[in-house]
Amino acid sequence: MIILVLNCGSSSLKYQLLDMKNDEVYDMLAKGLVERIGMEVSHLKHQAIGKETLEQEKGIGDHAIAIRAVLEALTDKEYGVLSSLNDIEAVGHRVVHGGATMSASKMVTDEVIAQIEKCSDLSPLHNPANLKGIFAVKEVMPGIPQVAVFDTAFHQTMPDYAYLYGIPYRYYEQYEIRKYGFHGTSHRYVSAKGAQFAGLDYNNSRIITCHLGNGSSIAAIANGKCVDTSMGQTPLDGLIMGTRSGSVDPSVVTYIQKKEGLSADQVETMLNKESGFWGVSGISSDARDLSEAAGRGEYRAKLALKKLVHGIIHYIGAYTAEMNGVDMIVFTGGIGENNPRMRRRVCDNLAYLGVKFDHEANDCRGKDVMITLPDSKVKVAVICTNEELVIAQDTMKIVLSEME
Questions:
Q1: pTM over 0.85
Q2: Kind and range of the H or E element at 128?
Q3: Any idea what DSSP says for residue 356?
Q4: CA-CA distance, 42 to 92, in Å (whole number)?
Q5: Which of 8, 27, 44, 399 is the most exposed place for a label (fewest CB within 10 A)?
Q6: What does the longest C-alpha to C-alpha distance in the chain come to?
Q7: Considering only CA atoms, which of 332, 355, 317 is closest in space to residue 197?
Q8: Cα–Cα distance measured from residue 169 to residue 331, given in angstroms and rounded to the nearest whole number
Q9: What phi-psi label fits residue 63: left (phi over 0), alpha (psi between -120 and 50 degrees) or beta?
Q10: Hey, is 132 helix, strand or coil?
Q11: Which of 379, 298, 299, 312 is nearest to 342 (CA)?
Q12: Residue 298: phi, psi to the nearest 5?
C-alpha cells in the first residue's frame, strides 16, 4: 500500500511517501519539505530515492497549493516516483492534540475533524495547521482515505493521579484541563524498538524514553503503557527546550506579568518563543550552536546545556522511582541521537542505577546503538525515531480494516 504521510506546520509541510508491504517491510520512495507557506517566496525540497534532489522557490499561498506542489513533484517525469496520483492509496496525518477522547489513531471523519477543531484551543500553533492539511487533501484528492495519528494518544494510559493538576477539580470537568503529553508517536516507536533491540519483553519492562530536540519530552513506560510524561496540557511543560521555558513556578509567571504589564498573550509568547535555550543563552535556540559557543567558553551557552542535562537526570530519577525501577533508558530525537557529549553527561550521573557506560560505543551519531557495557544493570541505547513509519503503519491498518 502506497501511503503519503503529511506533517503540516503553520507555514511548513513535511512529507514522506512509503510503499508499505507490511508492518515490518516497506520502501521509502520519497521525502521532502515545503517551507515558508503563505509568504512571498516559498521553498520546496523534494528527494525521490535514487534521483537528484529537486529544489524550487516559488509562491505557495496555502497548504492546498503546497500539497499540489508535492503531488506534482511526486509525479514529475524526471524527479518523481509515481506514474499517477491514483497510485497513492491513503494519506496519514500527524495531528498534535487529540484531547482525552482520542486514545488511538482514527480514520478522518466529520466527528474526528470536530474533535481536532475542539482541541485547537489546547494546541493553537499545531492543530489548525494539521486541519489545513486534512482539508487540502480533501480538496486536491477527494475520496482518498485519510487517517489522523495523534501525538497525545500514546499517553492516554496515564492514571488520573498522574495527569490531573492540583487545581480546583471543576476546571478539569469544565475545560478538560489536565496533562496530555506529546511526542507520543516517537515514544511509542522507540520504546518498542528499544525493547526489541535489548532483548526485553516489551509487555514486562520498565523503559524511560528521552525524546530530545528543539522540543523535548521524557516518558515513563511500564509494560508497554505510558504511566507518566514530562509535557503537560501543552508542549510547554517539562524540560527546557529551544524557545520554550519548560517547567516554571506559576507565581513567576504572574509576577513577571504584573511587573512588565504584560497581557496573557504576551506572557504566552514569552514562555513559548522567547525562553528556553534562546532565553537563557541569548545566543541561539539550537543546541548545536550552543555546543559551539560553549566550546568557546560562553558561560550562558554552557548554562543552557547544563540545565537540559539537569532536567533529564531529574526526570529519569523521578520516573525510576515511579516505576519502582528501570530496565532501559532510550535517547532519541535530534539532540538525543546526535549529541554524544550530552548522553555521556547524563549517564555519568546514573551509576547509582547500575549503568555501566560504554564510551567507545557512545561515540556515534544518528544510528541505533547500545551505549552501555554488556554487564550494565540498566541498558541505555540510542534509537533513531521514525514517526513517519508509525503513521504509515497505523494508516495501513485502519484503511485495510475499513475495507474488510
A1: yes
A2: helix 127-140
A3: -
A4: 24
A5: 27
A6: 62
A7: 332
A8: 35
A9: alpha
A10: helix
A11: 312
A12: -70, 115
What the block records as the C-alpha cell of 391 is 503513521
- The total number of residues written for the chain in this structure: 404
* 11 CB neighbour count, 10 Å cutoff: 16
Torsion of CA 306, 309, 313, 316, to 10 degrees: 160
The C-alpha cell of 376 is what? Answer: 550494565
Helix (H, G, I), strand (E, B) or coil at 71: helix
Q: Which of 365, 400, 384, 2 is nearest to 189 (CA)?
A: 384
CA distance 361 to 364: 7
Strand 26-35 and strand 42-48: the pairing is antiparallel
pLDDT digits (tens, 9 = 90+) for 295-338: 999 999 999 999 999 999 999 999 999 999 999 999 999 999 99
Contact by Cβ (8 Å): 136, 60: no
For 270-331, the DSSP string reads HHHHSSHHHHHHSS-S-HHHHHHHHHTT-HHHHHHHHHHHHHHHHHHHHHHHHTTS-SEEEE
Do residues 196 and 190 make contact, with C-beta atoms less than 8 angstroms apart? Answer: no
Beta strand 328-332 with 379-382 is parallel
DSSP reduced 3-state for 41: coil
Residues 6+ apart with CB under 8 A from 133: 6, 8, 13, 63, 67, 93
Residues paired with 92 in a beta bridge: 5, 147
User: Rounded to the nearest 5°, which phi and psi values hold at 40?
Assistant: -60, -40
**pLDDT per residue as tens digits for the range 171-205:** 999 999 999 999 999 999 999 999 999 999 999 99
> Which residue's entry shows cell 504511566?
227
Catalytic annotation, residues: 151
Cα-based distances in Å from 300 to 89, 156, 272: 50, 37, 19
Asked if residue 66 lies in contact with residue 33, where contact means CB atoms within 8 angstroms, the answer is no
13 with 34: CB under 8 angstroms?
yes
Q: CA 312, CA 213: separation in Å to the nearest integer?
A: 12
Locate 169 and state its grid cell.
Answer: 477539580
Question: Torsion-angle region of residue 183: left (phi > 0), alpha (psi -120 to 50) or beta?
Answer: left
pLDDT < 70 positions in the chain = none
Q: Cα(first)–Cα(last) distance of the chain, in Å? A: 15
